[in-house]
């Protein structure tokens, strides 16, 4: 790994340690359990990809997740995505930036994405939500962002049975403003959420991020990772947290995209009462 990449990775590890500290005063909770309890959750993912034509990348995603009760029967579930990246330009297939600007490896903020789902309460084993998503061009460098304002509809589906939790969330965005010299956005984004609980607090997990750039040629449109990993809930009582290690190969990908990615994820849920 190059010396240029090491410094941002150290910053990413430091962020991970901060999340661990927050998790020590939190209760471990799965994503689907958030529906049933008023929580602010702070999931964190560090993706290390390899095989892209323009070089490897390290991408840290902080995805605060919080639920706002609206009525006795409906809630608004919100997801924010703040991304720190040490990545080269010109790499296709990344969420929110399907027409990337070419350039050298750069460290900084990527664009910011907000997603909201209007979700009914007490729907049994199957739950759903629908709403909107929007991306704001806050990237600190042109190679890390789209320079476009975009928005579109979003959805989420979750089915739980026994030790299994099967879910999907996603949406499609179109650009409506921004730099006229950059390519327009018409991108589908899907996020799988498949989990199988095992004995002794272990679990299997697969959470691929699938994208489709509808403006690209048919052979360069889709990015479809295949893979997964294993996770563990550690600690006991109120001092618990969940972490997982995953690996994916990009079975379908546009030219120039990474061949594979390794992901380290931490879930740090925080009871809503801590903010009162």
Q: In terms of topology, how is this protein built?
A:
Blueprint: H1 3-23, E1 39-41, E2 44-50, E3 57-62, E4 65-69, E5 74-87, E6 106-109, E7 112-120, E8 126-136, E9 148-161, E10 164-178, E11 186-197, E12 202-206, E13 209-213, E14 222-236, E15 239-252, E16 260-267, E17 269-271
Verbal overview:
The structure is a single chain. This protein is mainly β and 276 residues long. It has a single domain, classed as Beta Barrel (Porin), CATH 2.40.160.40. The protein is built from one helix and 17 strands. It has a 17-stranded antiparallel beta sheet that branches. The N terminus and C terminus are likely disordered.
Summary tags:
disordered N terminus; disordered C terminus; 17-stranded antiparallel sheet; globular; 1 helix; 8% helix; 276 residues; Porin; mainly beta
What does the overall shape look like? Answer: globular
**CATH H-level name... which superfamily?**
monomeric porin ompg
| Main pleated-sheet profile | 17 strands, antiparallel
Number of strands: 17
- Rg, rounded, reads 18 Å
Structural class of the helix and strand makeup? mainly beta
CATH class: Mainly Beta
CATH architecture descriptor text: Beta Barrel
For the terminal residues, how far apart are their CA atoms?
A: 44 Å
Overall pLDDT, averaged? 83
Helix and strand succession? Answer: HEEEEEEEEEEEEEEEEE
CATH-derived topology? Porin
Count of helix runs: 1
Strand content: over 45%
State the helicity in percent bands.
under 10%
